[in-house]
Amino acid sequence: MNINWEFIINNVPLYQKAAWITLKLAAFGIAASLVIGLLCSIVLYYKAAGLQKAVRVYIELSRNTPLLIQLFFLYYGLTKLGITLSEETCAVLGLSFLGGSYMAEAFRGGIESVSRSQIESGLSIGLSKVQLVRYVILPQAVAMTIPAIGANCIFLLKETSIVGVIAIPDLMHVTQDLIGMYYMTVESLAMLVVSYLILLLPLSVFLTWLERKVRYAEFGN
């Protein structure tokens, strides 16, 4: 098989630009997902009246609809309702909407793993609910949920491959364009794979290191 290296070298800048867009969208989406997930998990834990059902509806709606459909609704559906959002805003909202529900489930699992005796001890020394969450529940819950949160971060980064459907020049969109224009399928797909590996491998290595550090701090081995 002959590889057209000149084609690959000439299009590296195009992939660099697309990789930056992909990374930026993923970073905003993951950050927003963490905030949404944490808030939702706290609402579920305290069974906040009126909000608990709304959070459950959001989680079920988010997890049981494809990101593709969510993006179409944000980009095309809202326009019909008189709300026009940019492509990047729709992508970040879509990733946040999807990721928030997965993060909520991850945080909820961590919060529920905190032993009842520690919570009762916190209450017995006069901690308020906010202080209990801040000083007792969250530090342990976050440590326990690092693996799940890491898996969700990687999942969301990979899900950015769909945002090209709303005309964002991400890695997948650029690859499809190059294949359509030059029929350089092997070269284009090879650059796509390498680009995602460059983005995902450092994140995966960092999360593995973080998980080991947390485990060492918790169990001492």
TrEMBL record:
What are the GO BP annotations of this UniProt entry? amino acid transport
Q: Which UniProt keywords apply?
A: Amino-acid transport, Cell membrane, Membrane, Transmembrane, Transmembrane helix, Transport
Q: What is one GO cellular-component annotation here?
A: ATP-binding cassette (ABC) transporter complex
| Keyword Membrane appears in the UniProt entry | yes
**Superkingdom of origin:** Bacteria
Tell me a Gene Ontology molecular-function term this record carries: transmembrane transporter activity
- Report the subcellular localization: Cell membrane
Segments traversing the membrane: 20-46, 132-157, 189-210
Q: PANTHER family, alphabetically?
A: AMINO-ACID ABC TRANSPORTER PERMEASE PROTEIN YHDX-RELATED (PTHR30614:SF37), MEMBRANE COMPONENT OF AMINO ACID ABC TRANSPORTER (PTHR30614)
What is the official name of this protein in its record?
A: Polar amino acid ABC transporter, inner membrane subunit
